[in-house]
Amino acid sequence: MEERKKYSFSNGKITIEIAKIGAELKSLKTVEGIEYIWCGNPEYWNFSAPFLFPIVGTLKDKKTTINGKTYNIMQHGLLRHQEFEIIEKTATSISLENTFNEETLKIYPFKYKVIVTYILNDYSVDTKIKVINLDNVLMPFNLGGHPGFNCPLYPQESFDDYTIHFEKAETFLSPKVTKEATLNFLVAAREYRDLTNLPLRKEDFNLDTIIIQRVKSKKVFLVNKNNKGICFEFPKFKTLAIWTPHNDAPFICLEPWIGYNDHYDTDGDFFKKDDLVLLAPEKDFEANYKITILN
């Protein structure tokens, strides 16, 4: 793999690879050779662990209005398509930075800087994303992660050998995802009560995405029948989405979100989006998620 396109480093127990485009985690592998991150095979989904900014999900009609002007922001925002540069690297961490440019201002009219930091510690990777407002006005945005995990992890296993265990019991209505990929919270695609364990079944994802709007748990466990897998922690995020294509795709995404797709009946005003972070000039906002291998 070309060094100019990906960065790789190891702590002797795990090795990670990060792409320059999107600062995306492309590989998390143990010294024994077990790969935990989805490879991005475009036959199923051509990303691995993108960051979602300044929107999460999809806008109604692919457009929004900001201060009276219409902007077309692509699904999950612009950050996953931007080039990052290394600003700091140590034996156990790496930080990458992306700053607004003339092209991003045409899509999202605010001057931002984003710093992504990966920190290795034993069998864990802590992923931090910091958003900085370089503008002289209030900057609104949603923020999310979208890591995909190989499922199954081992030969002779299947997708439905795995279960998601929640830290706390979850009771929620997962909203209907419309054909336009907006959300209708008035119609429940599925209802869950006191959910502590979610056995993975492909048919459960015919509804598209399971969305836990106000998730109580701040960590979940994705494990096989031998309790091998990962612990996934997301302390500052309000929503957890769980997604896999409803085909034979061998991965599952655990997506921590602040915000989500537009409501089906939105009037398109960006400032009315749910869970907006409103960041003052020269201030920053940071969130993180952590992956710990259970082996």
Mean pLDDT: 96
The strand order across the widest sheet is 7-8-9-10-22-18-17-14-15
Distance between the termini: 27 Å
Indicate the CATH topology.
Beta-galactosidase, Chain A, domain 5
Number of strands: 22
Number of domains: 1
Number of continuous helical runs: 1
H/E topology pattern: EEEEEEEEHEEEEEEEEEEEEEE
Structure description:
The two termini are 27 Å apart. The chain has 1 helix and 22 strands. The strands form 5 sheets. It has a 9-stranded antiparallel sheet, with no helix packed on it. Strands 4, 12, 13, 16, 19 and 20 form a 6-stranded antiparallel sheet that branches. The chain has a 3-stranded antiparallel sheet with strand order 1-2-3, with no helix packed on it. β9 (112-121) and β10 form a beta hairpin. It is mainly beta and 295 residues long. The chain has a single domain, classed as Distorted Sandwich (Beta-galactosidase, Chain A, domain 5). It is globular, with a radius of gyration of 19 Å.
Characteristic terms for this protein:
295 residues, six-stranded antiparallel sheet, 2% helix
List the helices and strands and how they pair.
Layout: E1 6-10, E2 14-19, E3 25-30, E4 51-52, E5 64-66, E6 69-71, E7 85-89, E8 93-99, H1 102-107, E9 112-121, E10 124-133, E11 139-141, E12 143-145, E13 148-150, E14 163-177, E15 183-199, E16 209-212, E17 219-223, E18 229-233, E19 239-243, E20 251-258, E21 277-279, E22 284-294
Antiparallel strand pairs: 1-2, 2-3, 4-12, 5-6, 7-8, 8-9, 9-10, 10-22, 11-21, 12-20, 13-20, 14-15, 14-17, 16-19, 17-18, 18-22, 19-20
